[in-house]
């Protein structure tokens, strides 16, 4: 195993912005890299000095990331940096991750961590992270690899607007085809046992067919609530509740239309 130790200096007052950018942009880049295992970031009391340590299966894979994707990471956080980060490469002599193993080259999943702890239920924090990634990587980015990692093959989906959905990844792709810039923002998140409740706001531009309506090029905002039931590190059941008529009004549908009739017929 191999480690990259990156020393980072931030401009004053930029820690929160850096953290948001890391969660939304940098993590998605890292998770696509062959051999990537995990990233840990330490912050000094003054919140301007950071140490970021990433773990890799091999030096060759870490070097490949450094040459290809690392410049994209620097570009994403450039506005927050005070100077150029310093990178130190290290060989890992001992780590529990070396014994856990992961053929996919990614950090161990929540289910793997559960097995290592002797069968404990995943923590609320782990489940909330899965729910956050489900929203960010699956819905916002349309990442097919993330869908395979985060959505169970037999996941059950419940939405009064879309009854009978049997393939959630295909449904996500269909929604994103209607609204290519679709973006969900998590307003609040509550975890209890193996379920996570998310209150969200969605924003997007109607560029493709959706609910029987041809593209209007109108920008819309809707809010709703969803519940994800998580088992084995994956979403196994999902409920969504939102007001489709709010969307229809923003799309210019004021009287009963084919889209509304289609929704009503589904209920």
Description of the molecule:
- Helix content is 37%, strand content 30%.
- It has helices at 15-31, 59-68, 70-77, 96-100, 110-116, 124-140, 144-150, 168-178, 244-250, 258-266, and strands at 2-9, 36-43, 49-56, 86-91, 151-158, 183-192, 195-205, 219-231, 234-242.
- A hairpin with a 5-residue loop joins β2 (36-43) and β3.
- The strands form two sheets. It has a five-stranded mixed β-sheet with strand order 5-9-8-7-6. A four-stranded antiparallel β-sheet has the order 2-3-1-4.
- With 267 residues, the protein is of the alpha+beta class.
- The chain has ten helices and nine strands.
Quick description:
The chain is of the alpha+beta class.
List its salient traits.
267 residues; alpha+beta; Alpha-Beta Plaits; five-stranded mixed beta sheet; four-stranded antiparallel beta sheet; 37% helix; 30% strand
The CATH topology of the largest domain is what?
Nuclear Transport Factor 2, Chain: A
Radius of gyration, whole Å:
21 Å
End-to-end CA span: 53 Å
Global shape: globular
């Amino acid at each position: 195993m191999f480690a990259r130790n990156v020393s980072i200096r931030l401009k004053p007052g930029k820690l929160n912005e850096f953290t948001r950018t890391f969660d939304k942009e940098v993590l998605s880049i890292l998770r696509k890299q062959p051999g990537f295992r995990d990233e840990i970031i330490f912050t000094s009391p003054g919140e301007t000095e950071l140490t970021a340590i990433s773990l890799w299966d091999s030096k060759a894979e870490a070097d490949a990331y450094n040459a290809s994707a690392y410049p994209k990471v620097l570009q994403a956080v450039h506005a927050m940096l005070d100077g150029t980060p310093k990178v130190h490469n290290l060989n890992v002599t001992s780590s529990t991750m070396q014994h856990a193993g992961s053929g996919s080259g990614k950090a161990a999943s929540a289910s793997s961590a559960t097995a290592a702890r002797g069968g404990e239920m995943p923590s609320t924090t782990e489940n909330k992270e899965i729910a956050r990634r489900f929203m960010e990587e699956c819905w916002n980015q349309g990442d097919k690899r993330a869908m395979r990692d985060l959505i169970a093959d037999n996941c059950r989906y419940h939405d009064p607007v879309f009854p009978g959905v049997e393939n959630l990844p295909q449904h996500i792709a269909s929604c994103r085809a209607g609204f290519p810039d679709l973006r969900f923002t998590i307003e609040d998140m509550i975890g209890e046992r193996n379920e996570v409740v998310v209150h969200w706001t969605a924003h997007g531009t109607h560029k493709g067919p959706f609910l029987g309506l041809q593209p209007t090029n109108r920008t819309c905002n809707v809010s709703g609530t969803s519940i994800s039931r998580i088992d084995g590190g994956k979403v196994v059941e999902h409920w969504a509740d939102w007001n489709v008529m709010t969307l229809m009004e923003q799309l210019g549908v004021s009287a009963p239309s084919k889209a509304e009739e289609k929704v009503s017929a589904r209920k």
